[in-house]
Amino acid sequence: MHCPFCRHPDSRVIDSRTSDDGLSIRRRRQCPECGGRFTTIETASLNVIKRSGVIEPFSREKVMSGVRKACQGRPVTEADLAVLAQTVEETVRQTGASQLDTNEIGLAILGPLRELDEVAYLRFASVYQAFDSLEDFESAIEQLRADHVRPAPSEAAGA
């Protein structure tokens, strides 16, 4: 790490702290040459491999943008989309991989979106999973209905 003051090619870490969200590390550094102190923020890189083969950095904003289209006209707020995007990022980071296919990102979106809004989930799934017939929609709707009918574990235990 070069000193931003004198460009000395080395620095000494004098303090390290994890950020509040746990996704980055804040380090206080000191230059052995000029004595200047500065802060660095370190994050693990996460890249997405697009269908075309292009590799680009993961972006919460792109997740929100894609899901926003499925949520048009639905009672979903920007705050809801931000929470969903954060959940997706946390999920994909937990895989430990530094590169993920767009397919894996899409799968990570489906679960939280289903909990947020079922209509938006169907819209997103129809594009993401390339529904090409009425039967695909019917199957997805039947699955949603089946999941609603199942009693929760606490309800089953109390019966």
From TrEMBL:
Pfam families: ATP-cone, Zn_ribbon_NrdR. Keywords: ATP-binding, DNA-binding, Metal-binding, Nucleotide-binding, Repressor, Transcription, Transcription regulation, Zinc, Zinc-finger. Its cofactor is Zn(2+). Residues 46-136 form the ATP-cone domain. The keyword Zinc applies. A zinc finger (unnamed) spans 3-34. It comes from the Bacteria. Binds 1 zinc ion. Belongs to the NrdR family. Negatively regulates transcription of bacterial ribonucleotide reductase nrd genes and operons by binding to NrdR-boxes. NCBIfam families: transcriptional regulator NrdR. PANTHER family: TRANSCRIPTIONAL REPRESSOR NRDR. This is Transcriptional repressor NrdR. It comes from Microbacterium insulae.
